[in-house]
Design brief:
This is 2EXR domain-containing protein. The chain is α/β, with parallel strands linked by helices. Helix content is 26%, strand content 18%. It contains 11 helices and 15 strands. The strands form 5 sheets. Strands 1-8-11-12-15-14-13 form a 7-stranded mixed β-barrel. The protein has a two-stranded antiparallel ribbon with strand order 2-3. A two-stranded antiparallel sheet has the order 4-5. The termini are far apart.
Length: 367
């Protein structure tokens, strides 16, 4: 007869507890990546408050992907041992020490253990809960570092490009701080970005805003230069609907504590979010580029093109589109169906079909 007794977790066999901790670890792989929310300061990238029980006016204080594994770092010694093994943390420490002893950078060393090569070199970020401080892992080469919309950001000239880098071991007193570039920097879009949207929306004025939108604008020059940019610049739109017109079946999935995200195409996102009032990031980017196309094409063309319409002699610059250089992240669950001849009259004003379910089956009341 099967026992109905519930055993408290500490009384479970060690092997079973370890198995539970292992199942709680985020999977590592080429199609699993994180969205990590950090704040830009003059001292570098820092984590927002980590207590998920505390919420601010704009939602939970920290929903970063590193908080999913963060509980394992903070729970107890047993869980820490599991997450350290899962992430090869001690091996990375040894590799970092070897790099410092030999006078090289950690980035120049490859992991020689059985690890997914796509994970890349990890970095650490300090999170605080009460009087305690913990260091959790993220992956600068594959994760997306996202800046929230309602945070005050110093002027670009105050923090510079190096403050958007991150390091593995952060111990500057002992010279154990080697910076690594963040390959993907994103900014979460909200309706405040639409303020002043129109032909009067100035790229140069926006760069001077002390806001997430202003910081995004200040990074455009690097993202659109003709040479390959140092990092990818993203906009995250959590409310946008999107169509799946891609022929690729496998998509890289990014996740945070609230859900999953995929990269979308600007052409596959309607300008409305469906509530009759709000606009999507696609509407913002279209208006922004329309108001600043000449200036942005001159930036793309590079030095020597800062004369009226000089870029027109450069075919590549003349055909430049901002949407080809700025990447878009959307919620996976917000995928919708396109309108068809059968429902166009009913659904066209909305922008997508509301007559079918996710599998393409028509609702019974559709006529």
């Amino acid at each position: 007869m099967v026992s109905s007794t519930f055993h408290p977790f500490p009384r479970l066999p060690l092997e079973l507890r370890q198995q539970i901790w292992e199942e709680a670890c985020l999977p590592l792989g080429p199609f699993q990546r994180g969205v990590q929310y950090l704040d830009i300061t003059v001292d570098g990238l820092v984590a927002p408050p980590c207590n998920l029980l505390e919420t601010s006016e704009h939602g939970s204080s920290n929903i970063s992907a590193y908080m999913i594994d963060g509980g394992l770092w903070m729970a107890c010694k047993e869980s820490r041992e599991i997450i350290i093994k899962h992430t090869h943390f001690e091996e990375w420490i040894q590799l970092q020490n070897q790099a410092i002893d030999e006078g090289h950078r950690l980035m120049s060393y490859e992991a020689d253990w059985d690890s997914d090569e796509s994970d890349g070199h990890p970095a650490t970020i300090a999170i605080k809960e009460g009087n305690q401080e913990w260091h959790v892992l993220l992956y600068p080469a594959k994760d997306i570092v996202c800046i929230r919309p309602h945070v005050e950001i110093p002027m670009h000239q105050e923090y510079g490009e190096t403050c958007i880098d991150i390091s593995f071991v952060q111990d500057p007193e002992n010279e154990l701080c080697q910076s690594m570039p963040v390959d993907n920097i994103a900014f979460e879009f909200d309706q405040s970005w639409m303020e002043g949207c129109g032909l009067e929306m100035s790229y140069y004025d926006m760069k001077n805003e002390q806001s997430a939108r202003g910081c995004w604008a200040s990074l455009i020059r690097e993202a659109i230069q003709r040479a390959a940019p140092r990092r990818s610049l993203w906009i995250v739109d959590k409310n946008a609907k999107w169509f799946n017109r891609s022929v690729t079946s496998e998509r890289i999935v990014y996740r945070d504590c609230e859900g999953e995200y995929v990269e979308g195409s600007w052409d596959d996102v309607p300008e409305s979010t469906g509530d009759g009032v709000s606009f999507s990031a696609s509407a913002f980017l279209g208006s922004f580029f329309c108001a600043n196309s000449m200036e942005l094409r001159e930036v793309f063309a590079g030095p020597g093109s800062y004369y009226p319409c000089a870029y027109e002699s450069d075919e590549e610059a003349h055909e430049f589109e901002l949407k080809d250089r700025i990447r878009l992240l959307v919620r996976r669950e917000n995928q919708v169906q396109e309108t068809t001849w059968r429902c166009r009259e009913k659904c066209e004003r909305i922008g997508w079909c509301i007559c079918q379910d996710d599998e393409g089956n028509w609702w019974d009341d559709e006529d």
